[in-house]
Design a protein that fits this description.
Blueprint lengths: L1 H68 L1 E4 L2 E4 L3 E2 L3 E10 L14 E3 L5 E4 L12 E5 L20 E6 L4 E4 L27 E4 L4 E3 H8 L8 E6 L14 E24 L2 E10 L14
Antiparallel strand pairs: 1-2, 3-4, 4-13, 5-13, 6-12, 7-13, 8-9, 8-12, 9-10, 10-11, 13-14
């Protein structure tokens, strides 16, 4: 009888021990799975993120191929002659306003670009791009240096601030007394909507020394539909406020009223993979940004 009880007790203990071991193994397995499952999700997430990136990158490659096939030569490079939307990319090479809204490089207002000493700008405006210069408005503004629209920063001095030069394939005209002066520059606290400058009647001197106005030169040298022309704007004197405070640069904007080549074509692409989305943006320089070629000739 005692032997039978001992055997039963031994069997019961074995069952309990086995169940305990199974329970421990199960807990260990659950603990391991707790680390493995998130890791596998992360790996899958990385995989899908990479797929989205490479799909977006493929769109950029398609867009760059489009730009190479749909551009025309210019003095400073190539100009994308149209805007396109592909399966997973968009290319914007033309616009009425420079810079496009929100795409300016001014640190104080992204709707404006900047121009400073040693940092001139060049715009390709040939091939008859502008039919009527009377409708083109140039704006120059003092940046809002203190980020306070209630206080106005006013440009001081009386010396010319910005020189202009219109260059064609066979001739060029340079500003002669018709520079941009401090009085032409808007204060920092204004939208500059009424501070537009009309270049059409500005007079300059050609390489041969003869006088001609801006619009007439453009009509002669740049308006036959094939000739390339560029407009260069350069800061030629120190920039200071009326109280003598140095100004790092001026802000500028041009409303052409008709599509012209943007300084940088905007190439956008996006890729998606199982909830992951990647967007890429590339700027393709359409006009020279090499300062060595942006020189000004004074006569």
């Amino acid at each position: 009888m005692k032997l039978h009880n001992i055997q039963n007790t031994s069997k019961g203990f074995t069952i309990v021990l086995a169940m305990g071991i199974v329970l421990i193994i199960t807990l260990l397995a659950l603990l391991i799975l707790e680390y493995i499952i998130p890791f596998s999700k992360n790996v899958k997430g990385i995989e899908n993120s990479s797929k989205a990136y490479y799909e977006a990158n493929s769109g950029i490659e398609d867009a760059l191929w489009f730009t190479s096939q749909n551009s025309v030569g210019s003095e400073s490079g190539t100009i994308i002659s149209s805007t396109a939307v592909g399966n997973n990319f968009t290319v914007i090479g033309l616009g009425d306003i420079l810079p496009p809204v929100g795409k300016g490089n001014s640190e104080y207002d992204s709707d404006w670009n900047k121009i400073a000493e040693g940092q001139p700008i060049q715009l390709d405006i040939g091939s008859g791009a502008i039919s009527n210069w009377n409708t083109v408005d140039f704006y120059f503004r003092v940046p809002d240096l203190d980020y306070n629209k209630s206080s106005s920063e006013i440009l001081g001095g009386s010396n010319p601030i910005v020189n202009w030069q219109l260059s064609g394939e066979a001739d060029a005209v340079n500003a002669s007394g018709s520079y941009i002066y401090p009085g032409d520059v808007c204060d920092s606290d204004t939208s500059c909507s009424t501070g537009d400058i009309n270049f059409s009647l500005k007079t300059g001197i050609q390489l041969a020394g003869t006088s001609i106005n801006f619009a007439s030169f453009y009509a002669t040298e740049c308006d036959d539909g094939t000739e390339q022309c560029s407009l260069k704007l350069s800061v030629i004197n120190d920039l200071e406020l009326s109280d003598g405070t140095p100004v790092p640069y001026l802000e500028w904007k041009i409303d052409f009223g008709t599509p012209v080549a943007l300084r940088f074509a905007q190439v956008n692409s996006s890729g998606k993979s199982y909830g992951f989305k990647k967007e890429l943006e590339v700027k393709v320089a359409q006009q020279t940004v090499i300062e060595a070629f942006d020189f000004t000739i004074f006569q």
